[in-house]
Amino acid sequence: MLWDVTVIGGGIAGLSAAIAARRSGASVRLLEAAPQSLRGGNARHGRNFRLMHASPLCYVPDRYDANEFLDELHGVTGAGTDPSLAQLLIDGSETIAPWLIGNGVHLQPPGTGVMPYSRRTAFPLGGGKAMMNALYATAAKLGVVISYDSEARALVRKGRPGWTIEACSNATCETIEARSVIACAGGAGADPDWLRTHFGIAAEGMMIRGVPYANGRILTLLIDSGACPVGDPATGHIVPVDARGPRMDGGIVTRITAIPYGLVVDRSGRRVDVTDAGAQPTHYAKWGPRIAACADQLAFLILDARGMARAAPSAFPPITAQSRADLAVALGLDPVAFAGSVDGFNAVPPPSARPIVAPPLAAYPMRPGLTFVHYGIKVDDTMRVVQADGSRHDNLFAAGMIMTANVLRRGYLAGLGITLSAVFGRRAGEEAARYVTG
Ligand SMILES: Cc1cc2nc3c(=O)[nH]c(=O)nc-3n(C[C@H](O)[C@H](O)[C@H](O)COP(=O)(O)OP(=O)(O)OC[C@H]3O[C@@H](n4cnc5c(N)ncnc54)[C@H](O)[C@@H]3O)c2cc1C
């Protein structure tokens, strides 16, 4: 069969593209490398997404206007964001929640349960996994043909009809023909060799917070065949995670959030600090790279009983001891250096913390956890992939993390990842369908 649209990757970008293309009248095949039980890409781990709105809605309070959104985006990414894609993102964010709801996603009323107040973001009911299950159910109902365990390994331009894609499940490969292709295969952050090339020694102890399938094969394949790279392969969103978690796909629950209440030491027991990290949620992204720079990419958060009382529940229990000396032994630290670090911290604790005195003392071992890399391929306003020579194919599109660096060259805003992938995925699906239906 000749497909109108073949979508590579079944994360939030791929599902949004597939649903939008199918709703616009195209026949759609979706290839997902993961097995069905692990489908959904990194949005499985997501909590919330960012949206512009002029007045309160049943899923987000207050207002968050376009200028504020744009200012905040510029604030984190600085120069280098593509202005028209940034505008398309913000405009598209205004309608993405009703579009997701129309495709079966349920959103949580704001401020209920344990959810924090947020006027910038909406929270899918049941989390990202429930959202992705709903989108998969809708795609299947609309007639999108979904193949799991199906990794696209080659993409060849074929004049007419368009493209051939080789998709493999273990040793069995299939050749698929398509009039257009939308690449939604995510970034390259899950390939340890690729990370080592670009992050050097820091990659050795790095944990990959997301799916192991976003291995950059499609990104590399497109760049090797002439697509224009954007961004910096050696920068990423990196946050502290519990060193005892899985190397890959640990998700959001292994993130360490209590650093503002305690002291951080490296594996020799010496104090590690980030002067401007503060206690805002943005402190995570400042601590991640700092831990990556520590010996063996390992550091320890030290809290006392009062710090622990303020800490959010954690996936792994802390390592505890009744005294500094016992904790140093439990963590394998130099007791003298560690005692000196605690004394120095207690003499002038940061404004968000108190001296570490009340037993039991507690520690979390931490490693840098990579969320994504600020690197991808260039696209134009129609989501068509732009070649390094400035040309583009009419029928090759990309959306989601694979092109995020067009908008976000560095830094991050909470909830931007899902919004970006959903908004641009939807747009790519509509544009691909427009191409095939004339
Ligand atoms: C732990 C964690 C928590 C997060 N929390 C949030 C949050 O709360 N809010 C937010 O907005 N963002 C969050 N993000 C970021 C957000 O999840 C991502 O930006 C977004 O999900 C990216 O979607 P995507 O579809 O573009 O790519 P991905 O989610 O990476 O999906 C790519 C898909 O393509 C598949 N694939 C890869 N290669 C191939 C191939 N060759 N053939 C076939 N399939 C392939 C993969 O299996 C995967 O399913 C979080 C990310 C992580 C890791």
From TrEMBL:
The keyword Oxidoreductase applies. SUPFAM superfamilies: FAD/NAD(P)-binding domain, Succinate dehydrogenase/fumarate reductase flavoprotein, catalytic domain. One of its GO terms (molecular function) is oxidoreductase activity. Residues 4-405 form the FAD-dependent oxidoreductase 2 FAD-binding domain. Keywords: FAD, Flavoprotein, Oxidoreductase. Its cofactor is FAD. Pfam families: FAD_binding_2 (PF00890). This is Tricarballylate dehydrogenase. The lineage of its organism: Bacteria, Pseudomonadati, Pseudomonadota, Alphaproteobacteria, Hyphomicrobiales.
